[in-house]
């Protein structure tokens, strides 16, 4: 006698009565996931400790965009598009400069945003310049090339860590050590310029080796660099200042790679030159 197979599993097909229970379970799982992944920060407001849930979207969008630009620079470098990689690093610089200002203007600063910005900087101004320089020309030097590239990455990480613990304890007019965005800009501008000239001679390889090593060491040095943070953009300035800014943009647009290389090269050497001048100054 054959048994009816429909009786073997009477509950295999969900009934309409089970659908609300399934929806409730899904809702509970969603609520649990949101609760367990929520960011909670403690801050002092008005002398009282305040717990705040969630993150601010606007400044973190700029940070995420800077992170994407840094990652794009790595991918472009691996694919051999070194000009695009250099441009992406400069775009990351602009976005990195905007996220903090947007946070201050909208009063949306947070510890989460500061940590996220630091991690994004490590990718955009630590890993990206080193990998782009390595894939372009440093790999031709052998072991020395990747050792110097790693030196730059390690120095960038140390520079960012030291900057985070020194916030509020040093004069905001000066940076202690070369800022990582400026170091990345010099490396990116060098790659952009020399690659456009098809520079592959041994002399250029050694020059790039020196640039990457020097910028890495300067990041962790005690050399002071002017931060430009004491400039008040709300005050009126002479007309000639605006004219100089316009001329600067015109000069950069004529040959962007060369002018950016000269601009950031001058900033990088300004720190050691000022240090030497202070040493030679009478009474110092």
Quick description:
This protein has 284 residues and is mainly alpha-helical.
Describe what this molecule looks like in 3D.
- It is built from nine helices and four strands; from the N terminus they run H-E-E-H-H-H-H-E-H-H-E-H-H.
- The model is unreliable at 5-11 (pLDDT under 50).
- With 284 residues, the chain is mainly alpha-helical.
- Strand 1 and strand 2 form a beta hairpin.
- The chain has one domain (52-280): Four Helix Bundle (Hemerythrin (Met), subunit A) (Up-down Bundle), CATH 1.20.120.1760.
- It has helices at 18-37, 57-78, 82-105, 111-136, 143-166, 180-196, 202-219, 239-254, 256-280, and strands at 40-45, 48-53, 174-176, 224-226.
- The strands form two sheets. Strands 1-2 form a two-stranded antiparallel sheet.
Determine Rg (CA atoms, Å).
26 Å
Reading the helices and strands in chain order gives: HEEHHHHEHHEHH
Q: Based on the structure given, which CATH architecture is correct?
A: Up-down Bundle
Number of strands: 4
- The level of helicity is 55-70%
Category by helix and strand content: mainly alpha
**What amount of the residues lies in strands?**
5-15%
Discrete helix count: 9
Task: Supply the CATH superfamily name.
Answer: CDP-alcohol phosphotransferase transmembrane (TM) domain
Give the integer mean of the pLDDT values: 83
CATH topology: Four Helix Bundle (Hemerythrin (Met), subunit A)
Instruction: State the distance separating the first and last CA atoms.
Output: 109 Å
| Largest β-sheet summary | 2 strands, antiparallel
User: Strands of the largest sheet, in order across it?
Assistant: 1-2
Query: What best-fitting shape do the alpha-carbon axes yield?
Result: globular
CATH hierarchy class name? Mainly Alpha
């Amino acid at each position: 006698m054959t048994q009816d197979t429909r009786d073997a599993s009477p509950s295999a097909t969900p009934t309409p009565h089970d659908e609300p229970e399934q929806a409730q379970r899904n809702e509970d799982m969603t609520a649990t996931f949101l609760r367990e992944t929520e960011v909670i920060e403690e801050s002092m407001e008005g002398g009282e400790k305040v717990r705040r849930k969630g993150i601010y979207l606007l400044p973190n969008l700029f940070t995420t965009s800077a992170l994407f630009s840094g990652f794009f620079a790595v991918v472009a470098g691996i694919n051999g598009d070194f000009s695009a990689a250099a441009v992406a690093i400069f775009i990351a610089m602009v976005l990195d400069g905007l996220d903090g200002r947007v946070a201050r203007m909208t009063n949306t600063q947070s510890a989460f945003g500061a940590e996220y910005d630091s991690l994004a900087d490590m990718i955009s101004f630590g890993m990206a310049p080193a990998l782009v320089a390595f894939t372009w020309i440093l790999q031709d030097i052998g072991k020395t090339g990747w050792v110097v590239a790693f030196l730059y990455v390690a120095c960038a990480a140390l520079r960012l860590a030291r900057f985070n613990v020194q916030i509020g304890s040093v004069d905001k007019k000066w940076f202690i050590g070369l800022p990582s965005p400026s170091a990345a800009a010099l490396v990116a501008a060098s790659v952009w310029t020399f690659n456009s000239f098809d520079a592959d001679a041994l002399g250029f390889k050694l020059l790039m080796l020196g640039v990457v090593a020097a910028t890495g060491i300067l990041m962790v040095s005690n050399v002071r660099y002017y931060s430009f943070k004491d400039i008040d953009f709300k005050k009126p300035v002479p007309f000639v200042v605006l004219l100089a800014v316009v001329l600067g943009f015109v000069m950069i647009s004529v040959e962007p790679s060369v002018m950016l290389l000269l601009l950031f090269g001058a900033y990088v050497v300004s720190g050691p030159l000022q240090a030497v001048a202070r040493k030679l100054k009478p009474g110092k």
